[in-house]
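Predict structure. Input: UPF0386 protein BMG00_02465, 87 residues.
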Amino acid sequence: MNISRNEQRALHVLALGGRILHERENGSKITSVTCVTREGMILSGFDLSVFSKLRRKRLIESRSGAPYRISRRGRLSVRPQLDNQGA
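Output follows.
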């Protein structure tokens, strides 16, 4: 599966315990998204288009209205980075 650099960065943050906070308009359509790391930092370059691509590829999921997190498929798709490899 082809995953862009921004998508890969977002998946990496989510694999390390981050989450995607979303806001809805009138309870139906998602209007804004923010990718937050485990430490509370905001990931730059993450916008609604990257979010839509990750959701369409089923790499992220939300359960019962909770913040979006990485799915099992997403964990299998993310490439290893230096800081999340076991020592």
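The chain has a mean pLDDT of 87.
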